[in-house]
C-alpha cells in the first residue's frame, strides 16, 4: 500500500512552477480577466435582480446581499477546481510539462505544490476582479470584504487540492467531467449559496456541514461581506484548514504515485 | 516574494561527495593518471510489474567521454537514462552520479545535468526564447544571465530567426534542436541524450554532431542513445549494446567491430554454386536473404577465391561496421 499520508518534502522551488503559470496567465490576461467580470454581472442581474424581485429578503438581509458572498465563494471554487483538473491535466498529460520540469532541480512534489499554489492564486485573482463590481453595486460592506482576498487563497488551495486528487486518478480527460457534474455543480446549489441551508431537511443540513467544503467557505464569506462576524467563523475556518491539509498531502502523494514510475 | 507555506529543505545543504564505496572523493587513480568517474552503476535493475526493463547492468562513465547505449526497441535504454537523470527510481542495485545517489540527492545531481528526452516535451505556452528562458529559471539562473545564455544557445543550434516563434510552428527537427539547446541552459557537466537526432535531416544531424564534439572538447561528459549506428560509431568513445535489459558487449566502436565481425565484409549473391563452393573451402559465411555475407580480415583473398572457384554473379566488398556487430549480437528478428 502506497503511503498516501507521508508528508511531502517541498522546497521553495515550487514557486517557480507557480511563476510559470502566472506568466502564462498574464500574457493572455484579456481572455482571463473577462470571465469573472461577466460572471459577477450575470449572477447579480439574473439571480439578484431577477429572483430578488420576488424574494426580497432572507432572514432580514436583502436577497442580493445574501447571494453576493455566494457568488464570490462559487467563483473561488470554480477557478481553483477547474484550473487543477482540466488545466493541470493538460499540462501533465498533453504538454508533458511536468516531465520537463522534473528533469530540472524541481521535484515532482515541488511541481504539484506549485500547481496547487497557482490554483489558489487564480481564485484570489478572480475575487480581486469581482470585488469592485460587487462593491459598486453596494452589496458587500467595506472594509471587511477585503478579508475575502486571503480567504480566497485558503478556499482556493482547498479546492485546488481536491481537484488535484481527481487529476491524479483520472484515466482520461473525459472522466474529469464526473467530479465536475456530480460534485461541483450540486455543491454550488446546495451549500447555503442561493438559499439558506436551514431550508433543507435536517439530515441534509448535517451532510452539507460535514461533507461539503463550499458550505464552510460560503458561511465565512457571508460573515465577511454582510458583515456578521460570529464565533462560528473559527469553527468553519478550522474545518477548511484541516480538509485543505489532508487533501494537499494526499494530492501530492497520489500525483507522485502516478508520475514517478 | 513570499514563502509562507514552504520551507527550503535541501536547497542549501551541500552534499558530501562520496565514491562508490562510500569514501569521500570520487577519483580513481589508474596508471598514475587521475580519472574521474561521472557515473558508476552496479547491478542496476528496473522492473515495471512483471516486465524487467533493466536487468542487473553494470557500467561506468568517465569524465569527458561520450558513452553510447545501443539496442533494439525495448532494450531498456530509456529506462536506464531515466534512472541516471533522477526521474525514475531504480528497483535495485547501486548507482552514483557525480558520486551522489539519485535517491538522496536528486536536486544536486539534476542541477548539473542536461537532458534531451526521447519524447519531445517543449512548453507549447511559450516561444522558443520563452522555453529556454523559463527553463533557466528552474535552475536558479538569474534573469540577465538567462537572457544572454538563451540568445547564445539559439545561435548555437541555429534557431535565432525562430526566437519569437511558437513551438507548434516549428518543424520536428527544429524542436529537436531547441530541446538540445534547452538541455544546455545550465552549462551541464553531464549530458543525457535519448535519441537526440531522431527525425533530423542530414544537415541538422551533422550540425548536432559538430556541436556535441565541441561540447566534449569543452570537457562535457555525454551519455547518449541512438538507433543510427553510423552516428554511434562516429561519436562514441565507448558504447554498450543492450538487449532485453542486459548489456551484451562493451567497448570502443572500432574494437567491437574488429572483435565481433572483422575488418571487411564481402557480400555475394546467393547461388548453389557459391554455397557449396564456400562450404568446400571451409570459409565461414552467413546467409541473409538473397545474399551471402563473409566477414574477413582480407577481402582480396576471399574475392579472388570466389572468382577463381565459385563463379559468383554479383560481388561487393565493404568495411565491416557497427551495424554488422549489432545485427550479429541482437539478431535480425524484428522486436515487437
Ligand atoms: N512506464 C512504463 N510502464 C511499463 N513498462 C514500461 C514503462 N516504460 C518502459 N517500459 C517497458 O520497459 C522495457 C524497456 O523500455 P525502454 O523504454 O527502456 O526501451 P528502449 O531501449 O528505450 O526502447 P526504444 O528504442 O524503443 O526507445 C519495454 O519492454 C517497455 O515496454
Ligand atoms: Mg527509448
Would you mind describing this structure in some detail?
- Chain A has 261 residues and is mainly alpha-helical.
- Chain A has one domain (14-259).
- Helix content of chain A is 74%, strand content 2%.
- Chain A is built from 10 helices and 2 strands; from the N terminus they run H-H-E-E-H-H-H-H-H-H-H-H.
- Chain A has helices spanning 14-27, 29-54, 63-94, 97-102, 108-136, 148-169, 177-190, 202-211, 213-225, 232-259; strands spanning 57-58, 61-62.
- Chain A has a two-stranded antiparallel sheet with strand order 1-2.
- The longest helix of chain A has 32 residues, at 63-94.
- In chain A, 48% of the residues are buried.
- Chain B is 33% helix and 26% strand.
- The termini of chain B are far apart.
- Among the domains of chain B are: 65-87 and 107-257, Rossmann fold (3-Layer(aba) Sandwich); 262-320, Alpha-Beta Plaits (2-Layer Sandwich).
- Chain B has a 6-stranded mixed β-sheet, sandwiched between helices. In chain B, strands 1, 2, 3 and 5 form a 4-stranded antiparallel β-sheet that branches.
- Chain B has helices spanning 77-84, 106-110, 128-138, 143-156, 172-183, 202-217, 229-235, 253-260, 272-280, 299-310, 322-330, and strands at 27-30, 33-48, 51-62, 66-70, 92-97, 113-116, 190-194, 221-225, 238-243, 246-251, 264-269, 286-288, 291-296, 315-319.
- With 336 residues, chain B is of the alpha/beta class.
- Chains A and B meet through helix 1 and helix 4 of A and helix 2 and helix 3 of B.
- Adenosine-5'-triphosphate binds next to strand 3 and helix 1 of chain B.
Q: H/E order of the elements of chain B? A: EEEEHEHEHHHEHEHEEHEHEEHEH
Strand content of chain B: 25-35%
The CATH H-level superfamily of the domain at 65-87 and 107-257 in chain B is: P-loop containing nucleotide triphosphate hydrolases
Main beta sheet of chain A, described?
2 strands, antiparallel
Instruction: Give helix % range of chain A.
Output: over 70%
Helix coverage percent of chain B:
25-40%
CATH architecture of the domain at 65-87 and 107-257 in chain B: 3-Layer(aba) Sandwich
The biggest beta sheet of chain B, please? 6 strands, mixed
Amino acid at each position: 500500500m502506497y503511503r498516501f499520508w507521508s508528508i511531502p518534502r517541498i522546497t521553495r522551488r515550487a514557486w517557480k512552477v507557480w511563476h510559470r503559470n502566472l506568466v502564462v496567465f498574464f500574457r493572455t490576461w484579456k481572455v482571463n480577466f473577462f470571465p469573472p467580470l461577466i460572471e459577477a454581472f450575470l449572477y447579480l442581474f439574473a439571480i439578484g435582480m431577477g429572483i430578488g424581485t420576488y424574494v426580497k429578503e432572507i432572514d432580514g438581509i436583502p436577497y442580493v446581499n445574501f447571494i453576493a458572498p455566494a457568488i464570490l465563494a462559487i467563483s473561488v471554487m470554480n477557478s481553483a477546481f477547474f484550473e487543477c483538473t482540466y488545466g493541470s491535466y493538460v499540462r501533465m498529460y498533453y504538454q508533458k510539462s511536468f516531465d520537463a520540469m522534473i528533469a530540472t532541480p524541481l521535484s515532482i512534489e515541488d511541481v504539484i505544490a506549485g500547481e496547487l499554489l497557482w490554483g489558489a492564486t487564480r481564485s484570489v485573482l478572480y475575487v480581486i476582479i469581482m470585488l469592485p463590481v460587487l462593491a459598486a453595486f453596494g452589496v458587500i460592506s467595506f472594509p471587511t470584504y477585503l478579508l475575502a482576498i486571503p480567504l480566497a487563497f485558503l478556499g482556493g488551495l482547498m479546492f485546488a487540492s481536491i481537484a488535484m486528487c481527481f487529476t491524479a486518478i483520472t484515466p482520461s480527460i473525459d472522466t474529469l467531467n464526473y467530479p465536475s457534474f456530480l460534485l461541483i455543480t450540486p455543491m454550488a446549489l446546495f451549500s447555503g449559496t442561493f438559499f439558506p441551508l436551514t431550508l433543507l431537511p435536517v439530515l441534509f443540513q448535517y451532510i452539507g456541514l460535514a461533507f461539503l467544503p463550499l458550505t464552510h467557505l460560503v458561511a465565512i464569506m457571508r460573515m465577511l461581506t454582510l458583515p456578521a462576524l460570529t464565533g462560528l467563523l473559527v469553527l468553519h475556518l478550522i474545518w477548511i484548514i484541516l480538509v485543505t491539509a489532508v487533501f494537499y498531502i494526499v494530492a501530492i502523494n497520489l500525483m507522485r504515485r502516478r508520475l514517478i514510475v | 516574494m513570499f514563502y509562507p507555506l514552504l520551507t527550503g529543505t535541501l536547497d542549501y545543504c551541500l552534499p558530501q561527495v562520496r565514491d562508490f564505496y562510500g569514501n569521500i572523493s570520487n577519483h580513481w587513480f589508474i596508471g598514475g593518471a587521475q580519472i574521474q568517474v561521472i557515473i558508476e552503476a552496479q547491478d542496476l535493475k528496473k522492473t515495471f510489474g512483471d516486465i524487467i526493463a533493466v536487468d542487473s547492468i553494470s557500467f561506468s562513465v568517465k569524465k569527458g567521454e561520450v558513452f553510447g547505449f545501443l539496442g533494439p526497441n525495448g532494450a531498456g535504454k530509456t529506462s536506464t537514462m531515466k534512472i541516471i537523470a533522477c526521474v525514475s527510481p531504480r528497483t535495485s542495485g547501486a548507482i552514483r552520479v557525480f558520486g551522489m545517489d539519485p535517491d538522496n540527492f536528486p536536486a544536486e545531481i539534476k542541477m548539473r545535468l542536461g537532458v534531451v528526452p526521447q519524447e519531445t516535451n517543449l512548453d507549447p505556452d511559450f516561444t522558443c526564447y520563452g522555453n529556454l528562458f523559463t527553463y533557466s529559471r528552474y535552475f536558479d539562473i538569474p534573469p540577465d544571465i538567462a537572457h544572454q545564455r538563451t540568445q547564445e544557445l539559439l545561435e548555437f543550434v541555429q534557431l535565432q530567426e525562430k526566437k519569437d516563434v511558437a513551438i507548434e510552428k516549428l518543424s520536428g527537427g527544429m524542436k529537436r534542436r531547441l530541446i538540445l539547446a534547452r538541455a544546455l541552459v545550465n552549462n551541464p557537466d553531464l549530458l543525457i541524450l535519448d535519441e537526440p537526432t531522431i527525425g533530423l535531416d542530414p544537415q541538422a544531424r551533422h550540425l548536432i554532431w559538430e556541436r556535441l564534439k565541441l561540447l566534449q572538447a569543452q570537457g562535457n561528459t555525454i551519455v547518449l542513445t541512438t538507433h543510427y549506428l553510423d552516428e554511434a560509431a562516429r561519436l562514441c568513445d565507448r558504447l554498450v549494446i543492450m538487449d532485453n535489459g542486459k548489456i551484451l558487449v562493451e567497448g570502443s566502436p572500432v574494437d567491437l567491430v574488429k572483435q565481433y565481425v572483422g575488418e571487411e565484409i564481402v557480400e555475394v549473391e546467393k547461388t548453389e554454386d557459391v554455397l557449396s563452393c564456400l562450404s568446400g573451402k571451409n570459409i565461414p559465411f552467413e546467409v541473409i536473404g538473397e545474399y551471402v555475407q563473409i566477414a574477413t580480415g582480407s577481402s582480396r583473398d576471399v574475392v579472388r577465391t570466389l572468382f577463381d572457384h565459385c563463379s559468383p554473379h554479383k560481388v561487393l566488398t565493404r568495411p565491416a561496421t557497427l551495424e554488422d556487430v549489432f545485427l550479429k549480437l541482437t539478431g535480425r528478428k524484428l522486436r515487437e
